[in-house]
Amino acid sequence: MYGMVNQAVEALVTERFGEDTWRRVQARAGIADPLFVTMKQYPDAVTYQLVGAISAETGASVADLLHAFGVYWVEYAQRGPWGKVMMAAGRNARELLGALDAMHARIALSFPELKPPSFRTVPHPEGLLLEYHSERPGLTNFVVGLVQGVGRMYGEHVTAEPVTTREGGAAFDTFLVRFHGPLAEAGKA
Ligand code: HEM
């Protein structure tokens, strides 16, 4: 994945656990180069090793870390140069979730080697079903966090509940996304 993703992981760890923890994570993950380059493609293994090392260093589960990283990624991306592209893709969480492929396609103009996931939304009486197609395994909880983060960006309380998962033998992950209305308090979802 592009260095931007690993930089966001670094920002999350240094903000929540401090720079010493980040240094131990880097050592444990076997990362010799101290700086990630935003626009360089790194092997996916680097990101997966980082998450495993953070779990080992902090005691947080990989599932919880991926969820937290999903929420954080939206905040991080929003303050970065592509934040406007993301915001412009929808006027609310439901619209953005329906436009994720178009949004990643816009982003791919700047990241030519992007290997984005693909999402499809299907109407559902309780909200919508979100299909998540990816060549990468193990990111179900990341998507749960991302959906929550998208909601938070619009001041909405939005949840995603996995309905089918590849881990459970399905061809792709599906989430039931529910829209619970405005967030009660800023920063709480
Ligand atoms: C400005 C906003 C965003 C930017 C710049 C961005 C960019 C990226 C980048 C660089 C990657 C790594 C893929 C690669 O390097 O080949 C990625 C992966 C991913 N993105 Fe986005 N993204 C944004 C917003 C979102 C949102 C809002 C969602 C979903 C709600 C999302 C879902 C994902 C997922 C699930 C992956 C993991 C890769 C996979 O599943 O195969 N992204 N994105």
Describe this structure in words.
This protein has helices at residues 3-17, 19-28, 44-58, 62-79, 83-88, 93-97, 100-108, 140-153, and strands at residues 118-124, 127-133, 156-164, 173-182. With 189 residues, the protein is α+β, with helices and mostly antiparallel strands. It has 2 domains: 3-60; 93-182, H-NOX domain, CATH 3.90.1520.10. Strands 1-2-4-3 form a 4-stranded antiparallel beta sheet. Helix 1 (3-17) packs across helix 2 (19-28), helix 1 packs parallel to helix 3 (44-58) and helix 2 crosses helix 3. The two termini are 28 Å apart. Bound molecules: protoporphyrin IX containing FE. Protoporphyrin IX containing FE (HEM) is lined by residues 1-2, 4-5, 74, 77, 82-83, 85-86, 100, 104, 107, 111, 114-117, 134, 136, 139, 142-143, 146-147, 150. The site of protoporphyrin IX containing FE has 26 residues, from helix 1, helix 4, helix 5, helix 7 and helix 8.
Question: Helices, strands, pairings?
Answer:
Blueprint: H1 3-17, H2 19-28, H3 44-58, H4 62-79, H5 83-88, H6 93-97, H7 100-108, E1 118-124, E2 127-133, H8 140-153, E3 156-164, E4 173-182
The chain binds protoporphyrin IX containing FE (HEM).
